[in-house]
Write a structure and sequence with these properties.
single chain; 200 residues; alpha+beta; three-stranded antiparallel beta sheet; 7 helices
Length: 200
């Protein structure tokens, strides 16, 4: 069964993003420490992965968190690929909770979006589970049908630029017999912005 995905994009200036990372970056990537088994006090499960006693969340080693700032468009891209099957569990992951705090740092007008996909690789094709919007009033859930298609395509393009594209490229290189050992460190080294990597 394919992993699910939380997809989001937020228009934000670099200055406000730096402030957000300063205030929330540590909590934003704490799940990554759990995925990698680096957080002190984790309880390892017999079938792999770790439970964080402080949150009681199980972190599957196949989970992947991608947080990249696209400077050209002043857009923060967020993708959380998860090995779970229900929106309630997805919504409670500590990284996602910390991510929603960015609503208070937005300095651009308009609306930004978060979408819960039942299939991370098929974000554009499978019916979404939930959609949220960011406005000046904060975060609120909206009807899935109210998610603008052009904004969904924009998020999908960012996912191809920062995650699915490099993965596809790796498989193409492997098929040609080229060295793809670099990809062993793709997560987290190329999935997180430098200020976040520095906190690991």
């Amino acid at each position: 069964m394919e992993p699910v995905g939380i997809y989001a994009s937020v228009k934000i200036s670099k200055q406000r993003l730096d402030e957000y990372y300063r205030d929330w970056g540590d909590k934003l990537i704490d799940d990554v420490r759990c995925i990698l088994g680096k957080k002190p006090g984790l309880q390892q499960e017999s079938h792999g992965g770790f439970v964080d006693p402080s949150t009681d969340y199980y972190h599957n080693p196949l989970n992947k968190l991608v947080i990249r700032y696209d400077a050209a468009t002043e857009t923060l891209f967020y993708l959380y690929q998860l090995e779970v099957r229900d929106p309630e569990t997805m919504e409670g992951f500590p990284s996602f909770v910390a991510f929603t705090k960015i609503a208070g740092y937005r300095d651009r007008g308009g609306v930004d979006y978060i979408a819960f996909s039942p299939s991370a690789p098929n974000f554009m094709y499978d019916t979404l589970w939930r959609v949220y919007q960011f406005t000046a009033d904060g975060l609120s859930e909206i009807d899935v049908d109210a998610f603008p298609e052009d904004r969904q395509r924009e998020i999908d393009e960012l996912s191809k630029r920062y995650y699915w594209g490099p993965i596809s490229d790796m498989f193409d290189k492997a098929d040609r017999g080229e060295d793809v050992s670099y990809f062993q460190n793709f997560f987290p080294d190329h999935c997180l912005d430098a200020p976040l990597l520095a906190l690991l």
